[in-house]
């Protein structure tokens, strides 16, 4: 669950880590962020971040990083309510079809956002991270 913006002690659901990593979208006043931490990606589509936006729309940046150093082709996808809004793949072997990082998006209010990755080259675990940061508008 996300933080409720404003003063005082943050409202954090049990198990949430507002200053660290997790799949939730965190709110600080008019700003939002999410840090996936290290996620191992295999040949199964793996969500790195998945959250629902609140009542305001968000102007955000998305950054996805592959820290594995492998030659595997990795497919990345950003979805809003199950619909793909951005998709690309990356390989350190030189086969690049990537957007400029970060990706700039507008996330509508009350939208399920999922950022995922799939290892297209095999079942090996490859370390990845995903970051979202932005500003909320009413």
Structural class of the helix and strand makeup? mainly beta
Number of strands: 10
| CA-atom Rg in angstroms | 15 Å
Average pLDDT works out at 83
> Number of helix segments?
0
Query: Low-confidence stretches at least 5 residues in length (pLDDT < 50)?
Result: 1-17
**How much strand?**
over 45%
- Inertia-based shape: elongated
Order of helices and strands: EEEEEEEEEE
Helix content: under 10%
The biggest beta sheet reads:
6 strands, antiparallel
Distance between the termini: 20 Å
Features:
four-stranded antiparallel sheet; elongated; disordered N terminus; mainly beta; six-stranded antiparallel sheet; 10 strands; 138 residues
Structure description:
- With 138 residues, the protein is mostly beta strands.
- It is built from no helices and 10 strands.
- The radius of gyration is 15 Å and the shape is elongated.
Helix and strand arrangement:
Elements: E1 26-28, E2 31-35, E3 39-41, E4 46-52, E5 57-66, E6 74-80, E7 83-90, E8 103-107, E9 112-119, E10 126-137
Antiparallel strand pairs: 1-2, 2-10, 3-10, 4-9, 5-8, 5-10, 6-7, 6-9
Summarize the structure.
With 138 residues, the protein is mainly β. It is built from no helices and ten strands.
